[in-house]
Structures are given as C-alpha cells and as structure tokens.
Amino acid sequence: MKTDELREMYLDFYVSKGHTLQGSDVLVPTWDPSVLFTPAGMNQFKDHFLGKVKLDFTRATTCQKCLRTGDIENVGRTAYHHTFFEMLGNFSFGDYFKTEAIHWAWEFLTSKKWLNIPAGRLNVTVYKDDDEAFGIWHEQIGLPTSKIARMDEDENFWPASAPSQGPDGVCGPCSEIYYELEGGESVEIWNLVFTQFNRIGSPPDNLHPLPSKNIDTGMGLERCASVLQGQPTNYHIDNLFPIVQAAAEVCSRNYSLDSDDGRRLRRITDHVRACTFSIHENVYPGPDKAKYVVRRLIRRAVLDGHQMGLREPFLHQIVPAVVEQMKKPYPELAESVQRVTRVMQKEEEAFFQTLDAALSRIDQMFTRMEDVAGVMVDGNEAADLYKTYGVPPELLQTLASEKNLTFDWDGYNKSMDQHAVDSGAGQKELFQTGPLETLKESLRETPFLGYEQISASCHVKGIIVGNTDGDEHLLGKVAAGGADQELRVVLDHTPFYAESGGQVGDVGTIHNDDFEFHVTDTQKHAALIVHYGHLVRGTIHENATVTADVDTERRDAIRRAHSATHILHHALQKHVGQHAQQQGSKVEADVLRFDFTNQEALSEAQIEAIQSDVLEHVAAGDPIRWDTVPLADARAAGAMMLFGEKYPDPVRMVSMGEFSKELCGGTHLDNTGDVQAFELTSEESVSSNTRRIVALTGEKAKAYRQQTTEILEAAAKQLACPVAAVSEATKSLIDQVRKLKKQLASGNADVQKRTPVTGGGGEASYAKMKLIVRDTARMLNVAAADVSSRIDALLADEKSLIQQLANLTAGEQVTADDLLADAETVGESLLIVRTIDGANPNVIRQLIDQLRKKSDKPVAVLLATVVGGDKVILVAGISKALVEGGMSAGKWVGEVAAVVGGGGGGKPDLAQAGGKDPEKLPAAIDKAKEGARAMIG
Ligand code: ATP
Ligand code: MG
Fewer CB near the last or first residue (10 Å), C or N of the chain? Predict the structure, then answer.
C-alpha cells in the first residue's frame, strides 16, 4: 500500500466513525510560544482538550506535519526516526473513551477491509496500574496476556512520569501498539493516550478523575507504511526512497543500507525534507529559535556531504525531489520550490566557505585532547569556533560524541555571555556616546507639529551617516550618490510622527531647491525625532531651510485605523467585558492589530456584535477631540487607563462623542464618520490569556468587502449553487474527488454523480458571507484569495477522474464466445488466459461466470487487466470439476500475482489478486498458462 493511500485510508476510517476531518496545523506555530515546532497531532487541539473553546465537534481526525528536534541524533542511526514526519491521529474531546479508542485502533490495523495486519504480529503495552486498558485488550480484543506488557510511568504516561514528578494538571496513562519485525525486534507504530486525570500535588492520592475524559492518539505514517510495505527502514518507503536516491545521485554515491554513507544519505534526506517544509513556512536559517534549528539541520547535512567529499553546495539540488514526493498531500509546496532552493543554497554557500578551516581546527583540537587524554571539549574553544566559523555547538558536540568525548556546556555558555559584554552589548546602556547623543545634548527634544499640520518649514540640525556598529558620525553636508546609503536627519521641529503607542512612523519627503530626501521611517530616540531615509537628489546641508512634507494619504489612512482602534476597544469592553483590555496594538495605514485580555475565542455572535457596534459609531459621525489635561482630571473624567502603565502629567486625552475617552499620543480623525468602513478580518490566540483582532478601515476595508463578495459569487458560480451553500457544495466536491480516486484505485467504475447542493436558501447577510468564505478557505487549505483557483483545480480533477473511470468501463469489448473460440484444450478441459485492456473487474467476473455456464467442458480462466495506469488486477475462476480434481483458483492466482509484484487469493473456484508491475504482465500470462497446464494435468 502506498503511503498516500494509507494516509487517506486512516482519515476515511475515522470519518466513518463519526470524526470530523481537520487539516494539518502549520509546522511552526507562532501562535504557541510553548513550542518551536509542532511535535504531535494533539497540539492544535490544546484548547479543545482544556475545554477553553466552544466545540463545533467532539471527534476529530488529522494528518499532522510534525518536527521533533529531540530526535535529531536518532536520524540516520535508527530505522524509524525522522525530524520531520507525519502523524495520523484521532481525538475525542469528552466524547468516547478507552473502549472505542482501543477497539477502533485494533479494527483499523487488523480487519481485512482496512490494513489487514496479522494480529499475531502485534503486541501492546499499558500503564502498570491501568487495569481497565489491560482488561479491554485481554478480555474484549482477546490478546493473550503474554502480548500485553505493563510498563512504568516513565514509559506509559503522558506527560512522562507525571504521577510522581508532575507537572500538575491534566494527564493520563497511554497504551502503545508495537509491530513485531522478522528478527523479533518490535517497532512502536501507534500511541493511544487516555487523558483521564487532573494531577494535584504529590502522591499518593494525587490523581483525580476528570469529569470529561479525552482521547489523543498518534500513529507514525512513515512507520506504518514501512511495516505495510515490508521495508527495512522508514527511508525505504515509496515517498522517501526516491529522495534518498536523489541525494545519492547528487552526492555521487551508491546507496547501501548498512554503511556510513547510507546513514549520511538518510540523514541528508530527512534534513532536506524538514528544511523544505520549514523554509516554505518562511522560517529561514538564522541565529535563534526555530530559525536556528533550520540552520543546524542544514549545517549537519552539509557536514555529511563534506565527509563524502563534496566541496560545493549540493543540498538545495535535492529540494525538487522532496517537493515531487510531498506535493500530492501538500500541493502548496510546489509554489515555493525556487524560493526554498535559493534560501538553502545561500546558507550552504556561507557555511562551506568556513567549513574547511573549521574542521581542521576541530581536528587539531581533538588530536591535542588525545595527547593529554582529555575527555571534555573545552567550552571556550567551542565558543570561539562558533564566533569565528559559525560551527554550531550542537554540531561540535555530535562530532565529539563520535569520539566518545563530552561537551562543556557550562563553559560554552559562560564564554558566550562574556563575549556579549566585551562586544559592548551590555555597556551601551551605561555609557552612550555617538552623534545622536551629541545632538540630544544640544537640542534636548524635537517639538512635534503633526497634530495640527502635515507640512512645515524647518531647519536641518543634524545629518548622520553610518550605522550603530561604531562607524557612525555627523556630517555638515552630504551629496546624493551612494543610492542606498541610509541617512538619518534631525530637524529643529517636525510634522513627522515618530513610531510610538503602536502607531507606525510617518513617511514622506524633506526637501528644498537643492535636494530631496525620502523619509522611509520616523523613530524616537529619547525626545529626539529622527527621520530615516535616503537622498535621491542634490546635496543636503546642516542648517538648511527645508520643507518637511508628510505623505498625507498614508497619514490619513493611519488616522482612520487609529481612531477605529479606540472605537473597537470600546466595543470589546461592551460585548466581551471589562477585562478585555488592550495588551498591545499596531496601527498602520488602514490596518490595525489589537491584542486584548481574554481566555477563550470570541463567539461568532460576539464578533458580529462588535463589528456592527463599531459601524454604528462610524455611522453616527461623532466629533473627535483631544486636550491636554491634568492626569487627575482625566481620571475623574473616566478616561480608560491601563493597569501598570505610567502616564505623564499632564496627559493628552482623546475623546469620541460621549462614548470613549482614552489617554493617547496618536494622530486621530476629526470625526468618527471619517473611518469610512470597518472590517474585522480575524480573531485568534496569541497566548493563553491574550487574543488578537486584525481589522481594516477605509479603502482597504471596502476592497476587502468587495473581494469577499466576489470570491463567494465566483465560487457559487463555479459550483452552480446558491451563495449561502458554497461551503457545503465545496465539501461535497472534496468528498466526491476523494471517492472517485478510491473508485479508480479499486477499479470500481460505477460513477455516482455529485448531488447538486441547493440548500442554504435565502439571502446571505454579509457577515454570513464572510464566515462562508473563511470556512471554505479552511476546508480547501488555501488563502481566501485562492479559493476560486483551488475549486477550479478540484473541478478539473473531478472531470478527469470521471473520464478515467469512463475509460475503464469502455475497455476492450470481449464476449464469452470470443474467449471460448480462442481457448486452448488441455486434456479434457479448456484453458483461457489473457489480458483484456481497460476492463472493469466487475465485468471480468461476469465474463468468468458466463464462461463456466456456457462451456460444456470444464474451464480454467484467468483474466488480467490494468487499472489506473499502474495497477494490475487478476481474476481466476475454474469449473467445479477442476476444483474436485484438486485445482485451486486461489493458489493459481496467488502464484501469478507474485510475478507482477503483488498477492491475493480467495475461494477455490473464484479468486482475485492485485499487483503493481504492469510491465511484467506478459511474463505473468506465461506463468499462468504453465501453472494451469501442470495443475490440470
Ligand atoms: P519513540 O519512542 O519510538 O521515539 P515516541 O514514544 O516518542 O516514539 P510518540 O510521542 O508516542 O512516540 O508519538 C506517536 C507516534 O509517532 C509513535 O508511535 C511513532 O509511530 C511516531 N513517531 C514518534 N516520533 C517519531 C519520529 N521521530 N519519526 C517518525 N515517527 C515518529
Ligand atoms: Mg520519541
């Protein structure tokens, strides 16, 4: 069974058990600060398990992209570990529990209809005190006690060792399913976690039953495929071995299982695949967090290549092979092949440049250590290798461990801390020097004119070139020339708003007849306002009289977004509660991001209420005023103040109509009506206590609204359904394509038309339309803007599948009489063996029935056909007389199927088998004839 088929089969199985199919979460979940990469299927459901979100469903099934950095050292060495792998899972949120979880896992693995793994090859573990799980496996499933091992809490509890060591909180025992390999060794393929306790305090009696119990299971896709495909390692399965081969080719090596090169090629395969998925998600190699993991993976793989003699970047050449293998389940990868390749090549180039020098230093170090019988790599020296050559300490540690040397992490960390102090990172704060400091002393502060005017006449007070690395200095004049040279300009006063309070800095131009300076950002340094940008014409002089013009259109768009932020804050307090206070915000041109305190996701009703509340305030056209008032007066007036925030006195208070008073330094509209339009586009979690809203105003909101409507109308047209039924019709299309693919694979040509979706009736409100677009995009696993092209692709798939199925039925037309006319006489019987191009297996079985009825002599028939271009189906049938004579259709077809790389069987008089090598069909036909002649004779 192909890996792609296994993935689909698992999901189909759990859908048939009432689970909702959900997409994979991203690999790098920036929304979850507790992990760098998604380590398991359950992570996207954390809030579901904790009962923090409203549940649309209580059973889910997924195939999740995972990455485990903890397994890096295992990769290449064990047969069954990757960093990147796919995990299949089924989840219950307070719905079914142990009995169903175990029964279904067993059914999926062993039943003929599904994986059909011989029960004798499976054994399981349970937590030592989990008599319930033991009982289900033993009494209900019927596993002998010799096949159920009771394990300790460090093996069979989630989180590991939780009962004795914590942490407090939800936890539970688990049960693992192992497959026994030829040599008696076992591999874990599936882990069933039964989350049933809340741990409070130390043992004993610290595990309290949860009122609502959960199921979380994880089955390794590659491990299970490897078992089903009878392969020696995960790396030999159908969607990984082509990558191993591509790596072998790029490295000019012959791959073999048990050699150093073999291990290296497997590691390269894994790491390129992991990095392809990470870079695709915009996680580029870099100095920290997830980026650092990507850097380490690339450098480890480069080192493997280096050890096989490569001296030029090579890894990036393997990316297309990864995409080729993975693009079926993850079609979005195909769009980023070039980007991923480029990023990887650049990182490789940089590392190759220093690698030779670094390795020779590492060699010297190891030799020196041998001389003095040293056992621990010196942390100082490791830090030096990192600073000079970029050798990650983890990589050095790996090289050291190959020589049985340990690594001095303490020394390494101390040395790196000292490095930070020496390079001035720590001192800067204490003794600041430089041109900005000089300006601060002479000017003290830059008065801001921008509340009243967006253009002003000013004088140049300082021009700074260079960056903060130490080569920055003040100049009396600078001429345009170095086009990209960044300058910083300080004026005596300015209408440009410097980034603060979440509002971005202004852009615009500073100019006079002699020069033109483009301002690309404005920032505050203490009380100085600094304009960043470059000179596009002429020469700028200190003390020149200039005009400073803020980009008005952009500033107006920022004002719209900022005023809308205050209105939104008010609406949140009203519809979510007093606790929904601002945690942070970012205000840009017609885009705003607003973080506020709240634990659970907002309901659809809340979101709708907030959206329409904001719009009501916009429609009301209330005046907006700002005054500078004593802090005490602002407090007395009930202005919104944030906990823990320090305010100056006096403060600037921004009021809108009678409904909103906030202390704020930003630039605002004169009237709420000028917000023009408001669209709340997303609401999501940023951390366990904080939610984030993103919204649009003005032109962007209008464009968004129009786009949403257009997307939906286009989709409705494509799917020929009412607008309100688009998500339903999309689901039906997805299901249909899935079903057709399965039919094609099994050779069942009986096409059922997709029932048109007519429901959903009536007019859809705009709010409803937005939800439909969101749901549809989620289902299709694309951005809203790509919904239409994705539906097109699915419709094309559907059409082509139907065509392929039609070709199946329209196979070569052969009648029973044709076949009888060509039959070979063997003794008293007739022998008919041949292929019928493109025939449907149902038709073949009917033909065999007719032959047996029509012929007056006993017949032995074996007919073969190829379906879907790559699958052979063989059906054999023999007359009763031959069965009585000792011949078996099952045995016959089984021997023949082996020739085409497959197997199968059935009853003595009728049997079917499959195979996967259509090119071996002629040999199989010969074999079939020989076999039958021998058996009949
Ligand atoms: P192992 O002990 O073999 O590392 P595990 O106990 O860490 O496995 P779980 O955390 O229970 O595994 O994950 C569930 C399933 O995911 C496992 O049963 C296995 O099939 C698969 N799996 C786990 N880690 C890897 C990996 N690094 N590469 C491939 N598959 C894995
Ligand atoms: Mg593990």
Answer: C
